[in-house]
C-alpha cells in the first residue's frame, strides 16, 4: 500500500512539474509571420543588380512586377505584397528610381493626374511615366521550416532532450530578371535568397 501511495504521489509531482516546464510563450516579434518578413527584408537586391549596370539603371526608372501567371489568386496576394514592399524599400534606400505599379494606387493616381479629380478611372493612357526597366520575380519559396539543431547528437540528447528546441528557418527565395522594357532584352537574371534562423 505504501508503494502504491508513493507511486501515486510521485506520478502527480512529475505530472505537475512536467506541465509547468512545457509552458511556452512566444511574443508577436518572435512569431512566424515576423520571421518571414525579416527574411524578405534581408534580400540583397541592390547587390543582385550587377555593378557594371548600376549607373545606367540609377538614371532609369524601374517597375517591379511578378512573373506569376495567375495574379488574381488571392492565396498569393499577401506573399506578393510582402515581397514587393520589401524590394521597393530596399531599392529606394539604395538610390534607385522606382515607379508605382500597385493596381489600387495606380487607379487613385490616375484620378489625380489631371487638373480636376475624376470620380472613376478610364482605360485611356495616363499622364504617368513608363518604366525603363522591369524587375520581375517569381516566388520559389517563402515560408518556415523546422529541423533539429545542427550539433553533436550526444550533446543534443543531454542539453535539448528536455527543452525540445528546434531550429526555425524563415526563407524567401526568388528568381529575378531585369529586363529592358523598350527592347525586352533580359539584362541580368538569377536567384536571390535570404534565411533567418533561430531556436524555438
**Principal-axes shape call:** globular
Q: What is the radius of gyration?
A: 26 Å
H/I helix tally: 7
Annotation, overall tally of beta strands: 5
Cα(first) to Cα(last) distance is 43 Å
Name the structural class. Answer: alpha/beta
Helix % is 25-40%
**Average pLDDT, all residues:** 79
Query: What series of H and E elements makes up the topology?
Result: HHHHEHEHEHEE
Unreliable residue stretches? 20-24
- Strand proportion: 25-35%
Characterize the largest beta sheet: strand count, sense, and whether it forms a barrel: 5 strands, mixed
State the strand order across the main sheet: 2-1-3-4-5
What's the quick description here?
With 200 residues, the chain is α/β, with parallel strands linked by helices. The protein contains seven helices and five strands, in the order H-H-H-H-E-H-E-H-E-H-E-E.
Amino acid at each position: 500500500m505504501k508503494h502504491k501511495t508513493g507511486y501515486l504521489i510521485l506520478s502527480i509531482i512529475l505530472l505537475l512539474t512536467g506541465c509547468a516546464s512545457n509552458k511556452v510563450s512566444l511574443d508577436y516579434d518572435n512569431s512566424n509571420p515576423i520571421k518571414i518578413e525579416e527574411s524578405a527584408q534581408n534580400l540583397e537586391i541592390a547587390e543582385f543588380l550587377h555593378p557594371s549596370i548600376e549607373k545606367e539603371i540609377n538614371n532609369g526608372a524601374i517597375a517591379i512586377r511578378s512573373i506569376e501567371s495567375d495574379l488574381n489568386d488571392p492565396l498569393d496576394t499577401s506573399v506578393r505584397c510582402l515581397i514587393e514592399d520589401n524590394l521597393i524599400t530596399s531599392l529606394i534606400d539604395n538610390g534607385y528610381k522606382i515607379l508605382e505599379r500597385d493596381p489600387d494606387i495606380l487607379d487613385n493616381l490616375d484620378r489625380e493626374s489631371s487638373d480636376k479629380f475624376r470620380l472613376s478611372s478610364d482605360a485611356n493612357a495616363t499622364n504617368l511615366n513608363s518604366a525603363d526597366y522591369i524587375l520581375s520575380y517569381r516566388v520559389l519559396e517563402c515560408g518556415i521550416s523546422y529541423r533539429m539543431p545542427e550539433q553533436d547528437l550526444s550533446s543534443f540528447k543531454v542539453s535539448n532532450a528536455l527543452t525540445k528546441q528546434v531550429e526555425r528557418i524563415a526563407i524567401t527565395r526568388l528568381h529575378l530578371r531585369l529586363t529592358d522594357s523598350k527592347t525586352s532584352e533580359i539584362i541580368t537574371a538569377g536567384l536571390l535568397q535570404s534565411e533567418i534562423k533561430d531556436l524555438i
